């Protein structure tokens, strides 16, 4: 294990740092967010293992930083810099979070008759489309949530079934 740590801990940490930096910069500037988001999230989690190896390999040096108290200022600084972002994120969550999720929740509570014009179709066409996909849709007065419940599905699945195909 020691040979592995000395040989690969720092290079793996460096490699994942580079990937995280590139994907983080791309996300910051909204370049190909769909491509980079899951890469950034998942590989940041994978990066934890090389980080642990790196700390293990350099444990004595880390203890030296702690003894000399040179680790305190960078750690405190990092936490202080992170706090405004955490606060802003918590404040955003109180407002309901991601607007797409809010819109989906509102749409699943809408009656088919009210939702059809938004989807550029008629209530009858929407009911027919839902029935053709196996949902128990009987009336334009039903909400998508009610249709989901009677069909044994989740409301977002019913919503996804009626949304028009996205043009590429």
Can you describe this structure?
With 168 residues, the protein is mainly alpha-helical. Helices cover 76% and strands 0% of the residues. The protein is elongated and about 75 Å long. It starts with a helix and ends in a 6-residue tail after the last helix.
Given the helix and strand composition, which structural class is it?
Answer: mainly alpha
Oligomer: single chain
C-alpha geometry: elongated
**Mean of residue pLDDT values:** 88
Distance between the termini: 49 Å
Number of strands: 0
Helix fraction by DSSP (H/I, runs of at least 4): over 70%
Number of helices: 9
Task: Describe the secondary structure blueprint for this structure.
Blueprint: H1 2-28, H2 33-57, H3 59-67, H4 72-94, H5 99-108, H6 112-118, H7 123-132, H8 144-151, H9 155-162
Helix pairs in contact: 1-2, 5-9, 6-7, 8-9
């Amino acid at each position: 294990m020691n040979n592995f740590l000395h040989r690969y801990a720092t290079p793996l940490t460096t490699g994942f740092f580079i990937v995280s930096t590139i994907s983080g910069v791309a996300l910051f500037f909204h370049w190909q967010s769909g491509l980079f988001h899951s890469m950034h999230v998942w590989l940041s989690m994978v990066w934890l293992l090389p980080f642990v190896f790196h700390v293990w390999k350099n444990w004595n040096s880390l203890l030296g930083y702690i003894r000399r108290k040179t680790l305190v200022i960078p750690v405190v600084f990092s936490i202080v810099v992170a706090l405004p972002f955490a606060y802003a994120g918590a404040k955003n969550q109180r407002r309901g979070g991601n607007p797409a999720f809010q819109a989906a929740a509102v749409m699943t509570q809408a009656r088919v008759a009210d939702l059809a014009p938004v989807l550029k179709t008629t209530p009858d066409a929407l009911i027919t489309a839902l029935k053709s996909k196996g949902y128990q849709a009987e009336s334009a007065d039903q909400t998508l949530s009610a249709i989901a419940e009677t069909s044994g599905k989740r409301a977002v699945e019913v919503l996804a079934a009626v949304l028009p195909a996205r043009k590429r």
